[in-house]
Amino acid sequence: MKVLAILYQGGEAATNEPRLLGTVENKLGIQQWLESQGHEFIVSSSKEGPDSDFQKHIVDAEILITTPFHPGYLTRELMEKAKNLKICITAGVGSDHIDLDAAVDHNIQVLEVSGSNVVSVAEHVMMSILLLVRNFVPAHEMIERGDWQVSEIARNAFDLEGKVVGTLGAGRIGYRVLQRLQPFNCKELLYYDYAPLPAAAAESVGARRVEDLKEFVSQCDLVTVNCPLHEGTRGLINADLLKHFKKGAWIVNTARGAICDKDALAAALASGHINGYAGDVWNVQPAPKDHIWRTMKNHLGGGNGMVPHYSGTTLDAQARYANGTKAILENYLQSRPQEPQNIIVGDGRYESKAYGQR
Ligand code: NAD
After folding, report:
1. What is the pLDDT of residue 307?
2. Annotated binding site
3. Tens digit of pLDDT for each residue in 17-26?
4. Is 70's C-beta closer than 6 angstroms to any atom of ligand 1?
5. Distance from the CA of 240 to the center of ligand 1, in angstroms?
6. Are 81 and 22 in contact (CB under 8 A)?
7. Binning pLDDT at 50, 70 and 90, where does residue 358 land?
8. Residues with catalytic annotation?
């Protein structure tokens, strides 16, 4: 059986750190195991264009393993060429780089290692919330420059206590963020999600559901985005919606870059309407060198907490999603049923309710 994995290049770091399992070098720790059973295992980071390893090997691979951190974009057109492809496994969480509607049409299963990195991301969200609200990045840059001007930083530094914080999407990550926000004594915790939380779960974190999106964003001092990217969320935070955000609001997005309109967001930040934006996800990955989100700033020269896509690929998370990928492979190879929570697209239909309402 031919198994193709598109992973990120780990370079020297991966040679020196074997726990970087999600890299081309360390191959999710499954190379020996797969090859000892007689399977062919191709691993590469080359994913763009007709000469890429991805496009070359997808034509006869039966199993495709991809990762959201270095997404191999599996389009409908590529699926049409992938005559043997039966199953796509996302080593991580978030399968928007795969055309899920096309997977349904082509009877290709799509599975994720659900839950594998949700704590990792929720912790990153908490860090990003604090670094924006407290104006951390410009403060650190000032120190590195050798300067010391407290007022320059303090004029845009606040406490999280007393603020209204809302999560757009209250699934595994969104809910964990709400849990972690509790001890900060926010004024109110809100959520917007077409799937309401069970009453006991909402009550236990003290979160109120707001059913209208504009109403939701207009009430929040800070919005954290925790929903998947699908046709209902692509470009959801656009120029029109941004007008409904409170002036001076912060946005943290570790879900997917394309949920926010790149240029509308940068403009809202520059104008001061949005005070800060932080996250690790980009509309194209790797982000081009001149991507405006790398350098965009608020009207005071701060408000940018962007990093490369790594919140869900801590070493702890890599151990979990590598194990989870192997478990999915084992089930597939031994024709055993998959864990229901991991199935995004099953036999010709969506099994997950998180990728849009249908
Ligand atoms: P989940 O399936 O547990 O929860 C997603 C929630 O979003 C669900 O409750 C769903 O109903 C809700 N939702 C879907 N569409 C919505 C919409 N239009 N408006 C409001 N809510 C909507 O998923 P999760 O484990 O919490 O992960 C969420 C997303 O986070 C993933 O799909 C992925 O894109 C992203 N993620 C990022 C990283 C990272 O490293 N940055 C890692 C893991 C996951």
Report:
1. 98
2. 93, 117, 172-173, 193, 228-232, 254, 280, 309-312
3. 999 999 999 9
4. no
5. 22
6. no
7. confident
8. 117, 256, 285, 309
